[in-house]
Design a protein that fits this description.
The protein is about 55% helix and about 15% strand. It contains seven helices and four strands; from the N terminus they run βααβααβαααβ. Helix 3 (about 60-70) packs across helix 6.
């Protein structure tokens, strides 16, 4: 059976996300809740001018590929569990700093992370032409947009 992994990261209105942030975090730690994940995804749509980053891959999870590539530093760079998170506007700056340190840091480290993500995708998935660099630059751009708008940011990783 075929499936597709989808990872979205985008600005969300904190007034609406705040009430579900804790439940979403707990659900992610417990293996996920599709209905709650879809509620978070729906919050990404109304934020005009802040297009979310979306990565898809056949038979693979894009967020898992990035986490694998980040290795032991993954939890320090990518918030939440498995690419699932909601950050308040006050937390977005720290996430931008952590991800930018990797995405825009030492060229050798950036190449290593991209190569590890690509190798993971080749092994686990079936997505020719997947661009592993997007797993760094896409979420970073979405987080920077949220930071500039003083908005919250969320990440949702799902399988369909």
């Amino acid at each position: 059976m075929s499936w597709t992994g989808v990872w979205a990261v985008g600005a969300v209105p904190w007034a609406e996300a705040e009430g579900i942030a804790e439940a979403f975090s707990q659900a992610a730690a417990a293996g996920g809740d599709d209905a709650l994940s879809h509620r978070v995804l729906d919050l990404m749509a109304p934020v005009a001018g802040a297009e979310p980053f979306v990565a898809t891959a056949r038979k693979a999870d894009p967020a898992a590929a990035l986490l694998h590539a980040l290795g032991a530093d993954g939890p320090n760079v990518l918030p939440g569990v498995g690419g699932n998170f909601i950050l308040s506007p006050d937390e977005v700056g720290g996430a931008v700093t952590a991800l930018a340190a990797v995405a825009e840091g030492d060229d050798e480290e950036v190449r290593r992370v991209r190569a590890e993500a690509a190798a993971w995708m080749d092994e686990a998935g079936d997505e020719p032409g997947f661009r592993p660099g997007d797993l760094l630059t896409g979420p970073l751009a979405a987080m920077r947009t949220a930071l500039g708008r003083k908005s919250a940011v969320a990440g949702v990783s799902q399988r369909y």
